[in-house]
């Protein structure tokens, strides 16, 4: 089946009831609209909300806790020690490459198998009505999944490994500050919480850069071929975009951290991208939501492009006028912004 991208430009401002009917027709599933503001950066500050956010994200078996557990396992069992990384050598670099390749392959592959091959959840909580594209020259190999696998496992794994290798070498040789849990327990735990926030800040600004017409047409358009996203879409990027995206890891070059922080960041940027691009909002087990995955916030970006550059927990899109709340009015504003940008 050949993919087609629908033209959803509104011609008028309909009533609220009509808007909701239109949204239901356009999507297989969407959360309650308009999207609310879940950001922790609220004014006046709300300590109770902040504590609830911390509890949801760090005191339950959330996706971030799962990633932190994975980071500890990678540090203890799989990645080479910092002592090994004091000198560049093929052996330990190849070890990291193989681990990263397997980690991306297993994460994206398992999610793709579960949701799109086995169809274990059917279309429950799936945003788009359509599935992954096939038999379309838009994609390398005429297949969206093969195209996404090629870019994720090729350029993606290679550059993720390169950034990790350089960072480990800097840490091992004392060129960047490092800590241990025993020395700085408060900062150790705080930095784990901060890393996703830093990633969101970095992502918003580099993402806006990538949407400037020159870079969009030559670089970022490759990622945006994925309108109906799937797990393999998240890390599928042009090599230039991979480089820009992964510069978020350079924070470990200047801020005191432990290898566990670096590996948590690696998991967050690599396998985490597959989780956030499943095209489903949550993993259901016995019809109960057990693991947060994709967000309608980012799904709107993949359909309408010039909106929601960041993520829904951080306030940047709201503060800088690029927020799409899922309404028809927001779609009109976004399409007008796109027309101004690209003429």
UniProtKB/TrEMBL annotation:
| One term under GO cellular component | membrane
Which molecular-function annotation in GO is an example for this chain? oxidoreductase activity
GO terms of biological process kind: lipid biosynthetic process
What Pfam families is this protein classified in? FA_hydroxylase
Q: What domain of life is recorded for the organism?
A: Bacteria
Q: Which residues form the Fatty acid hydroxylase domain?
A: 194-322
- Name the UniProt key words of this record, in alphabetical order: Membrane, Transmembrane, Transmembrane helix
Q: Chaperone among the record's keywords?
A: no
Kindly list the places in or outside the cell where this protein is found, as annotated in its UniProt entry. Answer: Membrane
Q: Where are the transmembrane segments?
A: 58-78, 90-116, 150-172, 184-206
InterPro entries on file: Fatty_acid_hydroxylase, Sterol_Desaturase_Related
- Name listed for the protein in its UniProt record: Sterol desaturase family protein
- State the organism named in the record: Phaeobacter gallaeciensis
């Amino acid at each position: 089946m050949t993919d087609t991208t629908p033209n959803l430009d509104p011609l008028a401002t309909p009533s609220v009831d009509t808007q909701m009917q239109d949204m239901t027709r356009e999507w297989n599933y969407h959360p309650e609209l308009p999207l609310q503001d879940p950001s922790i950066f609220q004014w006046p500050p709300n300590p109770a909300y902040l504590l609830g956010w911390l509890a949801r994200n760090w005191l339950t078996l959330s996706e971030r806790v799962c990633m932190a557990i994975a980071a500890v396992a990678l540090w203890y069992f799989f990645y080479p020690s910092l002592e090994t990384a004091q000198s560049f050598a093929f052996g330990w670099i190849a070890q990291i490459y193989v681990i990263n390749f397997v980690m991306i392959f297993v994460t994206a592959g398992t999610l793709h198998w579960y949701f799109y091959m086995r169809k274990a959840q059917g279309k429950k909580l799936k945003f788009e009505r359509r599935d992954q594209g096939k038999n379309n020259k838009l994609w390398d190999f005429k297949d969206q999944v093969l195209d996404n696998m090629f870019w994720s496992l090729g350029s993606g794994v290679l550059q993720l490994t390169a950034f990790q290798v350089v960072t480990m070498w800097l840490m091992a040789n004392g060129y960047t500050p490092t800590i241990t849990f025993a020395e700085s327990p408060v900062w150790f735990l705080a930095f784990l919480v901060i890393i996703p926030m830093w990633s969101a800040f970095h992502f918003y600004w580099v993402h806006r850069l990538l949407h400037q017409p020159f870079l969009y047409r030559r670089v970022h358009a490759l990622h945006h071929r994925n309108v109906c996203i799937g797990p393999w879409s998240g890390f599928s990027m042009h090599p230039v975009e991979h480089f820009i995206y992964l510069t978020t890891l350079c924070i470990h070059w200047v801020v005191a951290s432990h290898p566990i922080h670096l590996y948590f960041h690696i998991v967050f940027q690599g396998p985490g991208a597959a989780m956030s691009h499943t095209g489903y909002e949550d993993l259901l087990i016995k019809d109960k939501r057990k693991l947060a995955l994709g967000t309608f916030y980012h799904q709107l970006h993949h359909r309408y492009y010039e909106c929601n550059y960041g993520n829904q927990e951080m306030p940047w899109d709201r503060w800088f006028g690029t927020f799409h709340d899922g309404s028809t009015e927001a779609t009109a504003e976004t399409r007008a912004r796109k027309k101004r940008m690209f003429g």
